Structure formats: C-alpha cells, structure tokens
Amino acid sequence: MKSVYILVLNAGSSSQKSCLYQLPLLSLPEHPPAPLWQAHIDWGKTAGIAVVKIKAKNQIQTQEIPLISRPEVMRYVLHTLVSGEFQVIENFNQVTIAGHRIVHGGMKYHLPTVITPQVQEDIRDLIPLAPAHHPAHLEGIKVLSELLPHCRQIAVFDTAFHHDMPLAAQVYPIPYPWYEKGIRRYGFHGINHEYCAQRAAQLLQQPLDSLKLISCHLGNGASLCAIAGGKSVDTTMGFTPLEGVMMGSRSGSIDPGILLHWLRNEGLNGDQINHLLNQESGLKGVSQLSGDMRQILSAREQGHPGAKLAFDVYIHRLAQSVGAMLASLGGCDALIFTGGVGENATPVRAELCKNLRFLGIDCDLEKNQIRGGDHDIATPNSPVRILVITAEEDWAIAQTCWRFQEP
Ligand SMILES: Nc1ncnc2c1ncn2[C@@H]1O[C@H](COP(=O)(O)OP(=O)(O)O)[C@@H](O)[C@H]1O
Ligand SMILES: CC(=O)OP(=O)(O)O
Ligand SMILES: [Mg+2]
C-alpha cells in the first residue's frame, strides 16, 4: 500500500514536540496511529542545555546537548530521521508535507494555510501577541525550509476552532473601535479542544451535535473551552495565551489595574511586565518553587506552604472558570481533562471535582487513579461524565496535512 510521510512540528512555550507519521495515501485511520518517530526537545530545564528525547523503532534515548542555538538542536534532531540508530526514512525527500502548530493566527488567518514567505512575515508580525511561541515557530519553519526545501509546509492555527465563537464571547468591554483593530478574544489550544470534543463523542457513543462539553486543557499553558454541538462557544484564553486560568509560569487573568500600578508606580517597563506575567507567575510565582505540577504536588505532600498555596489558587481559579464555561453552555454532559496536568495530576482532578460535586460532577476516586488510555472517571450515577483524554495535537495536525496532499 502506498503511503505518505508527514512531519509535524509542535513548538510550545518551553519545548518542541516533533513526530513523523506514515499514513496510507488514500484513507485516514480512525484512531491515532503510533508515529514512526517522535522527538521531544526541552529547552528550559537546565540553563544552556537542551534535553532531547527520541523515540523510534521501540527504543527511547534521552540526551543532553549543549544549547548553542535552538535551530542547531532542531537540525541535529531532524537528522536522526535519516541516519543513526533511529533512522526511519532513506532521505528527507520522502517527507512531502510538514505541519506546524501556529499558536496565533491574528485577524488574518484561521484556516490551515500553505506557508509562503508572506505567511512567515505575518507570523513574525504576530510575535508581540504570542512572544513565547511565535519565535520558535519561525525557527522551525526556517530549519525545515533548509533541510526539506521541496516539502510543503502547512500552518495549522490554534485559534481556528474559536473563530466563530458568539460575538459576546469575542468582544472585550473596551471601546469598540479596538475590536475592529483586532483587540479581541481569539482563544487558543483549539487544535486539541476540537480533537477532544470528537474523541468525547466517540467515548460517550453519542452524536457530537447533541453534546455540551467543557474541555480543560491543562499543560504548561492551560485553557478551558465550552463546546456546544462540536463548536467552541467560549474559552478562557483571549487576545493572547495569557488570559484565563492560572498556569505553570503564566498568571492567567489578573486585575489590569496591577499592570497600571507596575507601570506608573513601580517603574516597570513592558518587557519586565511581560517577563513577570509569562515566566515568573502562575504555580512558579505563587509557590516560589516551581512551575512544574509534579514538583508542586510532591512538595505539597511534604507540607511546603508555598506549594500548598499555589495548588489551592490553581484549583480555585479552575473551579471559577468551569463555572464560567458552564454558564456559557447552559449545561454540561461531560467535563474533559487533557494535557500533561489534566492527564496525569490525579490530585488536581480529585480536588476540582470535589469542589464541583454540587453540580453533579462526581468523580470515582479509584477510577481517577487509572493511568493511560482515554477513559471515564465519573461514578456510575454522576449526571455529568468526567473524561480523561490524551492530548493529540500532533495527530490532529497530521490529519489536516494529509488533506493537503497534492492530487
Ligand atoms: N505525572 C504527572 N503528574 C502531575 N503532573 C504532570 C505529570 N506529568 C506531567 N505533568 C505536568 O504537565 C505539565 C506539562 O504539560 P504538557 O501538556 O506536556 O505541556 P505543554 O503545554 O508544554 O505541551 C507540567 O506542569 C508537568 O508537571
Ligand atoms: C497556546 C499555548 O498556551 O500553548 P502551550 O500550552 O503549548 O504553551
Ligand atoms: Mg501543549
């Protein structure tokens, strides 16, 4: 059977996930197939070091390599596709399509788009709205243009799913002309929220158009999405991926008066405020320990007061936002947990569901401990189902790319 090789680059705020899928030329599999090759680069764990994990041919290898420059590390990682013990293809020419998760499409883009020099310029212009993501996207695009010059590169936008949210959910209560200039609520993590909605319908064995879902994407970045009949009707992130719930090192929503105070009375400038809100806040800022939920959970167990407070604020804000999404939906058939925290942090799920029990969200604490696979962790009588779904951004991007094959 003839097949097509699709490479996906998913650059996050602190890491880059890449994978290569080999898909049949004529039909898409119904369930996510295992990628032929996967690589995960962690930029931030140790200063000056990139931690690279490569998985292919039933082997996994972790290496620490000097972080001379991010493109240098990306080139090294991509070369393992065609040489060495992880080699899975003969040469780069076999890869005909590559997909990128592009966090922000701004006003101009939402549909998947072939990346041209103009599109790269536009992604560059949007750096101020996604400063933690867009520089990494552009580096990835450039490295692929050098190594795979023949390959079509497709931008898949994380904002797309929210593009048709009701106007009331898109407009900020500021003077309306700003909306027309693009200061509006775009929403993010749409690639995975949409995938999770489709997966939830499969798991619940109900048609997607009949369902009201709240998807909680809890990773380093985190957002909630209210999904009615398969469409996003509200979400917690807005103009940038900084709005909404508390995150690993991002504040989420705070009183804008704090920014004015910092600017006027504390002498902080825009770059300093950007750094404070994106890199020094969230779990990291409150705990003064770490932005990594694993460390917060273990320090909390050991009685660390900062970790306990960070966890409590995280849950408090999450519960508030579930309430907000619930109000936008007017009901809820299932609450979905996805992303690194959503899939793995059992105390987060248990504590949040405990706070929401009065709404008929009743978690089975034994099922909550089950690891791996997509499953329902609600008690049999819970009127709202509680689903844990593995985030599949890369698979969703690969499917979009597959549809871009040239006839
Ligand atoms: N076993 C675990 N228990 C608790 N938290 C976890 C676990 N594994 C991963 N996480 C958390 O998931 C977060 C990263 O989520 P992920 O979705 O991989 O991030 P990204 O947004 O970079 O894609 C980190 O805060 C990490 O601590
Ligand atoms: C949009 C966003 O916040 O992405 P990530 O969670 O990968 O940082
Ligand atoms: Mg992510």
TrEMBL record:
Mg(2+). Can also accept Mn(2+). Its cofactor is Mg(2+); Mn(2+). The keyword Cytoplasm applies. GO terms for molecular function: acetate kinase activity; ATP binding; magnesium ion binding. One of its GO terms (biological process) is acetyl-CoA biosynthetic process. Mg(2+) binds at residues 10, 393. The active site is at residue 158. PROSITE patterns: ACETATE_KINASE_1, ACETATE_KINASE_2. It catalyses: acetate + ATP = acetyl phosphate + ADP. ATP binds at residues 17, 217-221, 292-294, 340-344. GO terms for cellular component: cytoplasm. Pathway: Metabolic intermediate biosynthesis; acetyl-CoA biosynthesis; acetyl-CoA from acetate: step 1/2. InterPro entries: Ac/propionate_kinase, Aliphatic_acid_kin_short-chain, Aliphatic_acid_kinase_CS, ATPase_NBD. Its EC number is 2.7.2.1. Substrate binds at residue 101. The keyword Ion transport does not apply. The record marks 189, 250 as: Transition state stabilizer. Keywords: ATP-binding, Cytoplasm, Kinase, Magnesium, Metal-binding, Nucleotide-binding, Transferase. It is found in: Cytoplasm. PANTHER family: ACETATE KINASE, ACETATE KINASE-RELATED. Belongs to the acetokinase family. Catalyzes the formation of acetyl phosphate from acetate and ATP. Can also catalyze the reverse reaction. Homodimer. This is Acetate kinase. The gene is ackA.
